[in-house]
Design brief:
Blueprint lengths: L15 E2 L4 H19 L7 E5 L6 E3 L5 E3 L1 H6 L7 E6 L2 H11 L8 E5 L2 H17 L9 E6 L8 H9 L2 E7 L1 H11 L7 H6 L3 H11 L5 H13 L13 E3 L5 E8 L3 H10 L12
Helix pairs in contact: 1-10, 4-5
Bound molecules: S-adenosylmethionine (SAM).
Length: 286
């Protein structure tokens, strides 16, 4: 049963105000986490870890007043445990609040909390996982990790993604479609590195943007394909056509997409399945 209840209660601690579109984002995440942990637990992975570098305070409130578990609480509420949960956020108050929310969880001893920029924290996390992988254990595979990378806008740098890619990590990545659409006309004339340069890890997006400006070429499809192609070098299976769910605001303007990348075709299959249906039970239109 992978249709988990995301609804939460107001516990009097700070809650993040979120747009209505967040419900589907968290719904896809919870369904993927369920498939992932249930099928991977029991295989020969040295450990299975969940990494959330933009964790928030643990709860979200929608405009209709509904309170939903945030990504870290969804991760610790799964039917099966991850070995380690790495939670971090740049805002110390979010982490203080999240600690309180996790305190009574049976998973508490498996969680580590950090405050800081995702680009710095990832180094710490990667070193812990790499150290564990170095211990010789015949017949045991390296650690398997799942990272949920969910900033507000363009705060996810390519170096963070690249560091995760060096490990065996499935990633669900926030792609700020509106941020890029809005900022590209300004950043194209700015010296590097700009936030968009940092997101892509280089300036190739500028050529794609110029082709788009010249006419006849869409913008986001080629940008997404370019981003994914960079991950191919790390063994990601990005040739399998996988659509990236688009989240829109109440005026039907695209805000962001969720990009999924994985090193096995099974993960791609799971992602296709879990994003085919929305939180209200409707099939998602492709
Ligand atoms: C969209 S919210 C995350 C929501 C959370 N995933 C959930 O499901 O409730 C984005 C979070 O990223 C944090 N953040 C912004 N910039 C950051 C950075 N450079 N490094 C780490 N965290 C950052 C913000 O403080 C905020 O809590």
């Amino acid at each position: 049963m992978d249709d988990q209840n995301l609804e939460s209660i107001d516990d009097g601690l700070p809650i993040r105000d979120a747009g209505e579109w967040v419900e589907n984002k968290l719904y896809f995440l919870s369904r993927y986490l369920h498939r992932f942990i249930v099928s991977m637990r029991g295989q020969k992975w040295r450990s299975i870890n969940y990494i959330d570098l933009f964790s928030g305070p643990g709860k979200n409130r929608l405009p209709n007043g509904k309170t939903l578990h945030g990504s870290p609480l969804i991760a610790i509420s799964q039917a099966k445990s991850f070995d380690k949960y790495f939670f971090s956020d740049i805002d110390p108050e979010n982490i203080e609040t999240l600690k309180k929310r996790c305190a009574n969880s049976p998973e508490y001893s498996r969680i580590s909390f950090r405050v800081g920029d995702a680009g710095a924290i990832i180094e710490d996390v990667a070193k812990i996982i790499e150290k564990e992988n170095r211990i010789y254990r015949p017949g045991i595979w390296p650690s398997l990790n799942l990272a949920f990378l969910d900033p507000h806008g363009m705060e996810l740098g390519w170096q963070t993604v690249e560091r995760l890619a060096q490990l065996r990590t499935d990633m669900i990545i926030y792609y700020s479609q509106m941020g890029i659409t809005r900022e590209a006309p300004r950043e194209i004339n700015m010296p590097s590195p700009t936030p968009i340069d940092n997101f892509f890890g280089d300036t190739r997006w500028r050529d794609i943007y110029r082709q788009h400006q010249a006419g006849g070429v869409s913008l986001h499809r080629p940008l997404l394909d370019y981003y994914k192609s960079k991950l191919k070098a790390f063994g990601y299976q990005v040739d399998d056509p996988l659509d990236e769910p688009v989240f829109k605001n109440s005026k039907d303007a695209p805000l962001y997409r969720l990009l999924f990348v994985c090193k096995s075709s099974l993960g791609n299959k799971f992602w296709k399945d879990v994003t085919s249906k929305m939180a209200d039970g409707q099939m998602r239109m492709l």
